[in-house]
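#data-curation
PF: Archiving a pair of folding outputs for the training set. Convention for this channel: one message per protein, sequence first, structure tokens after, nothing in between. First:
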Amino acid sequence: MVSNLENDSDRLHAPYEATTSKDGSRDRYINVAVLMIHWIGSLDEGLEAHTEVTPLANIFRDDCGYVTEIVQLDNKGTPPQLQLSKIVADFVREHDGPCRTHLLIVYYTGHGYVWRARPNELIVSGTARAGTSWTEGAFAPNANWTHAEVPLNNASADTLVVLDCCCASNVMEGRLPSTGARSYELMAATGKNMLAIQPGPRSYTHALINALSALLQEGCDFSTTDLAQAICELRDDEVKSRLYNRLGGTARHIRFAPLERRSLSTSSEAERTDGSLDVRIDSRDQDSLRDGEAKRLASEACK
């Protein structure tokens, strides 16, 4: 059980970080959550996309320290559309928070296609065989991603969506209204109406895993631009993967770094590393320091 003191510390930490992370300074995420979505293995037999999920999840969870959740879609019991919509909505509800301190990452791998009459709505699917009949009690294994991602569009946190499927770029019908300092980006394995390369040495996810590993080993923060470029170099950009800003106007790029590098040291002394100063505030007397005072203190510290 989390103590009230820990809850209060988190409550005060968020406005402090949000205030000190204004334009011109690096984002300092205190909460990063990753949602990884794929189809259950029995539906994914022809593609085997699920085989690349665990290695990528291990990087996010073990190397970066991000909260990572893997979910499987199926076609029994509940329609896949209801499953996907609930999964995304629950994820946002649990992990959303202020931009610059909170980051949501949502990843999908599997089949994808679009209807001719609605080319900007991505359909994610557990099969490449359209029109297949299913046994009694089973639903067609497909769901409208464009409908399910609405909670992500309305979130406050910085958000990165990664789609490794055919027609991944078709979701970019237009840019969403910009909301303050938020960053919302899409990394798409393919351009519009293009086929993705199947899981294996030439796949987008395979390159994503290798690019993340290499950039993390360098020991520095890196941006989505750095990551997208590294992926293109590994694949010779053979299928024209894309990085999009989903918001109107010019937006900053999301930056990655393991949370451990940004956490406060356990030492009782303030430490100075790489020209930075680690300042601590004793807020054990919670009645004496409220949200407004935390923001004011942060503003004074940045002067």
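PF: Second:
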Amino acid sequence: MNKFISTLKKNKAISWVFGFQLFRLILLPFMGLMPQDAYYYLYGQNLSLSYFDHPGMIGYFLRIFTDIFGQSVFSIKLANFVITSFTILSFYKLASYFLSKQKLQRAIVLLASTIFISILSFNSTPDVPLLLFWTLSLICLYKAIFEEKKWFWILGGIAMGLAFDSKYTALLLQIGFIAFLLFSNKYRKLFLSPWMWISLIISVAVTFPVWYWNYQNEFASFAFQSSERTSSISEFKISPKNFFGAIGHQMFLLLPVLFLVFITFTYKYIKRTLLKFKIPQGKTLFLLAFFVPTFIGFFCLTPIYWVKLNWMMPSYITGIILAGMFISKKLIKIQIIFSIVFHVLFSLQILFYLVPIKSDDTWVGWKELAIETKKLQEKHPNTFVFSDDNYKTSACLNFFMDDKIYAQNIIGLPALHFDYLGDNLSILNNKNALFIDSDKRFKNTNKKGKHNPLLDHYFSNVTELEPIIIKINGKESRKFWVFYCTNYQAKK
């Protein structure tokens, strides 16, 4: 222990990294359940080769942690924290191949200080395992290419496959890898190497469960992830709001200093390439190959499509290494100040819920909703419970309640992976139900006064009950409309 403390005193960078991670660990017990936590926990409780929205890696990890540490919100948060901590360690190893000791320390502080690391540490998303396997893939590919260690071609293929088993955007790993070889004067010859092709074949083989699940289910997941987005992009409607929204998201995730460094070196390399026709080579090209397709590629879509804030996260790995080559000590200090301020504000929101969140994407109120729903079931015996908001309310109630909770497939609407749980809805025929409907823009405690017309197609009678009002710190913070529905009849 004394040796560890001595190391922290000597190495300020490691001290900062340890401090940020300790801060996050201390906050873990105070974090409530997010809808994403509950939904991917549902993945783990219904093991499958893959799932409708995403591949299943995050669900598998949550299943492992909840089996070991028990079903609790803390177990789920701990899974995210531990996986992300391994991502930080993997990043440190990867960055050491490219940076001097001083620049390596700056890079690891840059990474650990970001908001996106905090988000990954607290919230279950497919990006949590994706970032880990993405980083491990780059370590293996580096070893295979620059150190000519053949076994790392195999390990790299496995890691790339596991990244795809985490999230489909991992396909950009293979794209970046091939782009690096295409533009590299020295390493283009690797296209003739059987090891390179073995690596790619292994990466595809490891993704077999995802492809097989899609084959069994009419490629539903691939269609869901591509068709709607392709249609929106093809419309080509310019939206400044989307563009500036993306900039705001990235400045939040990376913090302003790091984001501006990203923009600066991106401009520098693009200018050099387009005006001087000088394409970076060697290790710099390697880093850019796994940065440009994801960061620049998605940014180019922002004027015509709403790019989600997490889509660019994989590019941060090599992007931060590149930033470590340019950033000054002074800017590092400013980055840390920004980070401390943001994290203090974040912790105050977690602990005291100072600013109400007008959305279902919140960590408060779900357990209280489950308690109130159980009370309603006692007043209305033999009722099942369902909701209609894609997955959020249904998944959260499923986590906190013993009874099975249903989604909007009860009334014939698409319900994401709830449609693939194998439920026979006809066993609910003639039963009564409680329909829980979240009031996202909670303004008053009144009843809704109307209900979804689809309910009338499946139930004999629909009666609105008093809404459930959730108080946080003595303040009315969340509201859920409740409808008592009788005599359910599933449509064939």
